[in-house]
Amino acid sequence: MTIPNRRVAVLSPVAWRTPPRQYGAWETVAGNVAEGLAARGWDVTLFATKDSLTSARLHAVVARGYEEDTCVDPKVAEYLHITEMFEHAAEFDIIHSHYDFMALSYTRLVRTPVLTTIHGFSSPRIMPVYEKYSDGYFVSISDSDRAPELNYLATVYNGIDLALYPLRESSGDDLIFLGRIHPDKGVHLAIEVARLIGLPLIIAGIIQDQAYFQQMVQPHLGQKIRYIGPVDVSGKNELFARARVLLHLNTIPERFGLVLVEANAAGVPVIAMDLGSCREVIKEGQTGFLVNNVHQAAHALGRLSEIDRKTCRQRVAQYFSIETMVEAYERVYATIFELEAKRPK
How many CB atoms lie within 10 A of CB 28? Predict the structure, then answer.
């Protein structure tokens, strides 16, 4: 469905490099969108940090992500980055923003249509911006993570590069947790499961809540429960090679859960809390199990032999690949072009 000679700008965040070295889900998806569109013949410009890697055209005014360089003031970087994009808006047929609510405030100042992929609502306090610009074009990343006051064109699931995560046909011995060290992600619940059944647990990810880490994680670290810090793609694959299962016992509704897809791509089953998008990403009994508490999670570990690792990867290839994601976005772009053509000039 590629529309020839169309120029698209992909606006990525500048917290991290695109794609990120370790953590950075939004940057990962923005980079994958740019790569996928470029591969299908679109004229793509990626707005990201100067150290970003892309086969598209890179446009950058911020040297490094503000989470990676303490010399960078986050607000200064964000405003330089976003305004640079919109000052060049006339050069594009469509702008695809992955920049949350801040970029919305510029959308009525340009004639170029702007599609916003909403990667999640960080707080109810940002909703007045979405409400003001509710006439814009929006896509959700799961059916469960939607605001009733917004009109969405579609749900487009995040897509990953399957080549980065080779299939591991045999199971490892360890439980793994991979994600932000934050109460929302339920690291303490993964620890509780590991202690309950006596299996080793490896924890990887950035510490986003230091007090939580010190109070709920650090006291349990030892030979059987280890924290190894944040990991890159290579580090993730090392974990997947050792993994019996990925524990994702989130305490709030999941918005999408990129790590669930990455684990399944490698053939690793997932035990996830049945909150938010987990039901959309994990196929119960086929790619993992959905649970409601620690004891159900421990019980599900006894059923892992029911999961076929190749099925896990096949489901990712069908629903959560870059190709599937980009084809869906192409359909959304086509809808936007049709709607724009009907607007009074």
Answer: 23
